[in-house]
Amino acid sequence: MAGPVDSPTTAQAGSQKPSILIRLAPIVLIAAAFIGFFAFGLNKHLSLQTLQDNHRALSDFVDASFWQALGLFMAAYVLAVAISVPGASILTVFGGFLFGLWPGAPAIVVAATIGAYIVYVATRTAFGESMRERAGGFVKRMETGFRENELSYMLLLRLVPLFPFWAVNIAAGAAGVRTRNFLLGTFLGIIPGSFVYAGVGATAGAAFEQGEDISLSGLLLQPQSLAILGVFIALSLAPIIYRSTKTARSAEPLDIETQNPDASEA
After folding, report:
1. Is 33:79 a contact under the CB 8 Å cutoff?
2. How far apart are CA 240 and CA 234, in angstroms?
3. Residue 54 CA to chain centroid, in angstroms?
4. What is residue 101's three-state secondary structure?
5. CA angle 233, 198, 106 (to 5 degrees)
6. Which of 192, 227, 217 is nearest to 48 (CA)?
7. DSSP string for 159-211
8. Helix extents (H) in the chain
9. How does pLDDT run along the chain (266 residues), one tens digit per residue?
10. Which residues does 239 contact at the CB level (< 8 Å), separation at least 6?
11. What b/e string do you get for 64-76 counting C-beta neighbours within 10 Å, with b at 16 or more?
């Protein structure tokens, strides 16, 4: 006697289970790493106090093994962005202090872009079209902006932090932004901010040596930091000004002869 034959629905469900598990695996790994980050108390080390307490040992390590230190820092930065932990700005200050604006800021830009790409791919793989259909809140609002011009909107979101960095990564993946536009918009858009915070870190050395109590706001008020911050603000406002000017020009009424070609013949 032949055994029971699986119905098409049962067979289809069975064939879909492995694919769903595979699609969700990156998100599960990221969530596990995020929980582990706090469970092991690693978040306590992301502070200016940690940098101040260990600045000499860190500087000695960089002097002795520069490229190894740079590689380890970039790996840590990629991981921090990939699991979306708070404190990336402090890590950027770390990078500026340890490696200066060059190559500190470029290394930060590359590492942050890679970390953001990991979140983007994980979100796009896990949810894709189904999440786009059910999306609400900030995801829906971003999706509307992406429809107009993916690259310009992506660049604007990175230049002007309207939403948290991690939220933009998730929303871009959920909205199905093209990989090229996501990478290019992220890479170019985070350059000014990376140089600002790396510049803050580069100016922190003198304060550390003098044993001063420091804060992120205090470091941002340093003359060099203010100069870099001014450039950052100018670059952030440039896309908004350009877009407003373009909109205003398109709204100008046409010349009367252009509006009514027959008027000149009357």
Report:
1. yes
2. 10
3. 27
4. helix
5. 95
6. 217
7. HS-SS-HHHHHHHHHHHT--HHHHHHHHHHHTHHHHHHHHHHHHTHHHHHHTT
8. 8-39, 48-53, 55-64, 66-82, 88-99, 101-126, 128-134, 137-148, 150-159, 165-175, 179-189, 191-202, 204-209, 216-220, 223-251, 256-259
9. 455 555 454 444 444 444 777 777 888 888 899 899 989 888 888 887 888 888 889 999 999 999 999 999 999 999 999 999 887 788 998 999 999 989 999 999 999 999 999 999 999 888 765 555 555 555 666 667 777 788 888 988 888 777 889 989 988 998 889 999 999 999 999 998 898 888 888 877 767 766 666 666 666 666 666 776 677 667 666 666 666 676 666 666 555 454 555 554 54
10. 152, 155, 156, 159, 160
11. eeeeebbeebbee
Q: Are 109 and 194 in contact (CB under 8 A)?
A: yes
- The CA distance from 46 to 50, in Å, is 7
Which two tokens mark 162? 């309207």
**For residue 206, what are the contacts with CB-CB under 8 A and spacing of at least 6?**
none
The first and second tokens of residue 61, run together, are 């390590």
**Six-digit token pair at 68?**
């190894």
Exposed / middle / buried, residue 116 (Cβ in 10 Å: 0-12, 13-18, 19+)? buried
Which DSSP symbol is given to 45?
Answer: G
